[in-house]
């Protein structure tokens, strides 16, 4: 629910009260709302993304980081994945829920962010291989723990099968960025990195919107407008087969 939406509803309600002579005037008319400006981010380049994945290789959660960078899943969506959501034979994943820490302090599974966020995506070959290895590793951990294993069906768990704490995952991500010699970024910026790298490869915006689970194409276009602007010279350079600077060809 946005500020603009709340203001619109409130203004309409007060306007009705004015018409019914319950109030003298609609004070909400004088309130100016501002359009939300997307937070700026610095996504990883293709080289940096490879460095990051190399740093996580060998870690028990390597498959999670690979899935994050190659599919753009949100942190909660990754942590909420169950094995029943994955079909490694056909290479697909169904995104149905999100693991979140609620105000009372506990971890719980919630519906996805929006209806569009509930989606089915194709898994890259690299992710399928990583997930198969991860499943084997988890099987060994389960055997070691025996009856102490918490069998919740989660793909990514603690060494005893319990759900992963989102805050701990963020800290682990930062440690791998540091190990790779990369600048600190938010975990969510891995998702931005996915979209940016796909745009740079010429992938259609609609495909990226469906992969990320955005409710509207306008959300995708707005968040990554600066990336598309940066790519425009590359598009123009292909017109007429000329390698001349854009400014020269537009004279």
UniProtKB/TrEMBL annotation:
CDD domains: INT_ICEBs1_C_like. InterPro entries: DNA_brk_join_enz (IPR011010), Integrase-like_cat_sf (IPR013762), Integrase_catalytic (IPR002104), Tyrosine_recombinase_XerCD (IPR050090). One of its GO terms (molecular function) is DNA binding. Residues 39-237 form the Tyr recombinase domain. It holds the Pfam family Phage_integrase. PROSITE patterns: TYR_RECOMBINASE. It comes from the Bacteria. Keywords: DNA recombination. GO terms for biological process: DNA integration; DNA recombination. This is Tyr recombinase domain-containing protein. It comes from Streptomyces spongiicola.
């Amino acid at each position: 629910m946005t500020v603009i939406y709340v203001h619109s509803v409130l203004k309409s309600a007060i306007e009705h009260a004015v018409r019914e002579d319950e109030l003298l005037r609609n004070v909400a008319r004088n309130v100016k709302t501002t359009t939300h400006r997307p937070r700026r981010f610095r996504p990883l380049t293709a080289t940096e993304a490879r460095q990051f994945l190399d740093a996580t290789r060998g870690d028990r959660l390597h498959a999670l980081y690979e899935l994050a960078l190659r599919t753009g899943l949100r942190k909660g969506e990754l942590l909420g994945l169950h094995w029943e959501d994955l079909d490694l034979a056909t290479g697909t994943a169904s995104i149905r829920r999100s693991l979140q820490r609620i105000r009372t302090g506990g971890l719980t599974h919630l519906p996805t962010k929006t209806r569009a966020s509930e989606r089915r995506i194709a898994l890259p070959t690299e992710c399928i291989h990583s997930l198969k290895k991860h499943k084997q590793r988890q099987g060994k951990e389960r055997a070691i723990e025996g009856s102490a294993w918490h069998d919740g069906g989660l793909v990514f768990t603690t060494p005893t099968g319990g759900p992963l704490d989102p805050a701990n995952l963020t800290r682990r991500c930062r440690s791998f960025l540091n190990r790779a010699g990369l600048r600190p970024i938010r975990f969510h910026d891995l998702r931005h990195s996915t979209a940016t790298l796909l745009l740079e490869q010429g992938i259609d915006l609609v495909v990226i919107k469906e992969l990320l689970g955005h409710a509207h194409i306008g959300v995708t276009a707005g968040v990554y407008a600066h990336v598309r602007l940066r790519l425009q010279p590359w598009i123009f350079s292909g017109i007429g087969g000329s390698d001349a600077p854009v400014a020269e060809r537009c004279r």
